[in-house]
Each structure stands twice: as structure tokens, then as C-alpha cells.
Amino acid sequence: MNLLLYAVPMFFLAMGLELVYGLVIKKNTFRINDTINSLSMGTLSSLQGLVILGFSASIFELIVRKYQLTQLPDNETWVWVSCFVLYDLAYYWKHRLGHEVALFWGSHVSHHQSEDYNLGTALRQTSIDFHGFLFYIPFFAVGYPTEVLFTVASLNLIYQFFVHTEHVPKLGPIEWVFVTPSNHRAHHARNKIYVDRNYGGVFIIWDRIFGSYQEELDDEKAVFGLRKPLNSWNPVWANIHVYWRLIQDVMKVPGISNKIKICFKPPGWQPEEMESACTLQQPEVDLSSRFNPEISSFSKFYTFAQFIFTVALSLYVMVNVGSIDYSVTVASVAFLTYSFYVHGACMEGRSNALLLETCRLVMLTIGLLLVDFNATLTSILLVNAGVSIVTLLTVGRSQLATPEAAAIQSA
């Protein structure tokens, strides 16, 4: 059972509590632009699963049918416990390879792009997890039932959600066995001492066993994000930027052997005679900088409001996918992807943001008139589209792009 969809209300409640707590103690760890970007990417990650339907389950059925595997009993405690522990071990190696192999880093990098660290960061997930199913195959081959495996995987991810916070200090002896907010803060940090450490999902013991553990140090405050920052709120570019640069390197490097090595060596590797497009441009990383384009208050509130409507439509599509025609699902996912891209452009104050947003609202209006969605939701979205178009053509014409943001983009 995939418990993640049922956990969504709990995730948002926990984020709200973390925000309020941070404001009360005057240590707020949320920014509206970064949070919208993280949640956009988390929603896109879930939406792409609607288009690529049941791939892991199909692999499972093929293995069971071809080899007539005997299934372990799903009502035995030892089956659940052993699957939980072994899955976390498999997750450790999937996660570690996601850092140490360039081809897999391109998929995982999106989770590390946020320069904030809060519960919203946990929802920042990739839309290009093309290799994750490989780590399920041994469980299918041994005979773990699909229901057990997918439930365990969901529980693993739900646990990981709660370690993404700056507000929980070190937890004493618990640090030796479990992944905690402290040792996971070290994992998300871009300080050199913390890079590529602490890969566990639930148990930190794997890092201690395999030599990848690093304690969070009192005299080395964790600074979050990538060592080569993304500097963008574009969720589509956030998913593909490493692969774009990897393709450039593969095309440029001479020899089949080097082309293969670039994909499977650590990120940024190149032959001695070649300068990689993925390599840091400066020898030292500026730990004090943070991407934060200045935009108008109108842009902030307008984009946040539109983001809420986009998420509402996304949740409707995800919950009702079984009753929606597949072609409509694909079109909806494409439109929602474009919507999240436009929200990012508005938060960056791009000069074409007004045009992009106007086109988005027109597309939304046409789509709602052509497709038979829930009547109440359709009415709300149509009213929003109409009011928004009028607002943009009057108040918002000069507000979605700002000289300050444009200057940051060109810097």
C-alpha cells in the first residue's frame, strides 16, 4: 500500500506547525519562493507517476510469472520487519550511488537544490527516477509480497520527511542508530566536510558500517544547497540541468570509453585534457550566498495564490486518476508542469512572466470548458482565471517583472 497520498494532510499540518514555531522563536526557516519551488517539484514527482503507470509492478509480475516464485507470507511479523530493515539497506546503496555516479546524480540532485532546510525540503523530489525499480528486483526475487514492499517503502519515506528540520537538536544515543535531523542536516550541507555523507533512510548504522558517516559539528554550521548552486526557481530545469550538462560532456569527450566513464564516474569527472561543463567554476564555494531574487509584494502574493489553485487541481487529478481518461491525464500533467514552470518565472521576476502567465490562464480556461472535471472545482478555477486575467491586465502589468530580479538573473 502506498501510504504517501494519505500522509499528505499530515505533511502540510506539520509544515504549518514548523512555520508557526519558527516565527514564535524568531528562527523562521521558510521562504515563500523556495517553499513553492520545493512543493512544485514534489507535486511534479507525483504527477509523472500518473503518466508512467505501474512500471515496477509490471516488472514484478514478469518476474513472478516467468520464474513462478513462491511468495513469503504477508501475515508474519518477521516478513515485515526483515523487509523494513533490508529495504533501508537497499535504500542506503541507492542513495549512495545517487551521489557517487553522475548518471544517477542527475536524478537525485533535485532533492539537494534547496538552500533552506525545513519539512518542505523533504517533499522536493525528482521526476526522473528511472533506476529506482532496480533496487526492488531482489525483494521480488526473494519473494516479498508487493503489498509488503511498497508499504515498507512508503513508511521509509514518511520517516525521512520528519528529519528535515533545523529545530531539533542532537538526540544523544539515538544518533548512533537512527537517521536524525542532526545527521541529516549534515547530509544536506554543502560544506566540504559534509558532502557525500550520511546516506541512510531510517538507520544511520549503514553509514557507520560502510564508512560514510559524518557527525554534525558544533563549530561547522551546516550551509544547505549545492556546491554549484542552481540559482533558478524553474522546476523543469531543476530536474534536467545535470543531464543537459552531462550530454554536453559526453558529446565533447573523445572515445567511447571516456563517454561511458563520464556517465558512471563521480559527478564532474573528466579526462585530464577536458574541462567538464559540470565542474565548479571557482576553487572555493561561497557558503554565504543564497539565491533570492527581489520581486514585488504583488508578485509574491499573486504567485502564492496561483500556486494554491495549481496544487488543488493536481490533487484532484491524482485522487481521481482512475476515472479520468488517460489522454486527459497526460494533457493535465503537461499543463500542470507548465503551470509550475510559470510560477517559477514569476518568482524570478522574468521579463516574459506576464506573457507566460496570461497564456497559462487562457489555456486553463479552455481546458476547463472542454473537460468534464468536478463542477465545483471547475467553477472555482474559472472564476480565478477570469479575475486573474483582469488583475494582470490592470494592476499586475508592471509588477511581475522587476529590475532588481532581472539584474540578479544576468549576474
TrEMBL record:
Task: Give the signal peptide, or none.
Answer: none
Q: What is this protein called?
A: Fatty acid hydroxylase domain-containing protein
Record localization:
Endomembrane system
Q: Which organism is it from?
A: SAR86 cluster bacterium
Gene Ontology annotations of biological process type:
lipid biosynthetic process; membrane lipid metabolic process
The record's GO CC annotations read: endomembrane system; membrane
Please provide the record's keywords in A-Z order: Lipid metabolism, Membrane, Oxidoreductase, Transmembrane, Transmembrane helix
User: Which parts of the chain span the membrane according to its record?
Assistant: 46-64, 133-159, 301-318, 324-341
